[in-house]
Amino acid sequence: MQNRITRLVSKVLFFLVIAASMMFIPSFGQGATQVTLSLNKQSYVSGDTVIISGTITSPGASNSMILQVYGPDNILVQIGTVNISSDGKFSTSVKAEGPSWNHDGSYAVKMIYVSPPINAVATANIDFKVKSVSSNAISSQSSPTTQSSNQTQAESLEEQIQKRIALANKLKESLNNESSSSEKIPSWIKDDARSWHDSTTDNAEFSKGIQYLISSGLVKINWKIDPTDSFEHIPSWVKHVAGWWSQGQVADNEFTNSIQFLLRDKIID
Hints:
By secondary structure, the chain is α+β, with helices and mostly antiparallel strands. The strands form two sheets. It has a five-stranded mixed beta sheet, with helices on one face. A three-stranded antiparallel beta sheet has the order 1-3-6, with no helix packed on it. It is flat, with a radius of gyration of 27 Å. Helix 4 runs antiparallel to helix 5 and helix 4 crosses helix 6. The protein is 41% helix and 23% strand.
């Protein structure tokens, strides 16, 4: 009996020693991944260059990020990838011009870093104003009359009304697209996207998924395509977007919006 008590006390003391020693073992837990984002300024007009820079702490295996720019009507106007340097810094620029930059308002710049299981996002808003050539030309006249001044104000008011109408139509289109993209995308398209990202299938195979998205109305274009058409010219960086979507890191509507943007601007053809 005494020997049993002695052995029990020894075991208790042993576990107490182990527990005490573990209290002094340092912890090397990795900090959370964070993205900081900065712009060269906050307000822009047509033709300006938006310089985007920042850093990422504790990145994973991936050495690139995805850039998205959304207009005031929440329509994707720019997409691309940005490389990350060895010290975690990144920098790129976007030209505020073209048909995508045709509305006054707040534009959202979004940087997304995905390296499973890491998913970090940073967003910055900018104020953008379309530069009016006609108003500059009118103001440059040396001696405008009262009548021409009133006409200019009337034209300016009419332009504002037209812009509001166009913005409302764009918003309606955006809501319709969002409603359409909420439909279920077949799983085989996501499987093809994953295989294409892993380079086990070619562009022609991935094109079948794009064909389906167009024919089903999930992606809308303003021209007709032949069912046998294949999109052979697809930038390699699009594989990052397809890969992230296939891993569930990018939402379905963001993926369809990306494909629609790339088709509309002839980046995919």
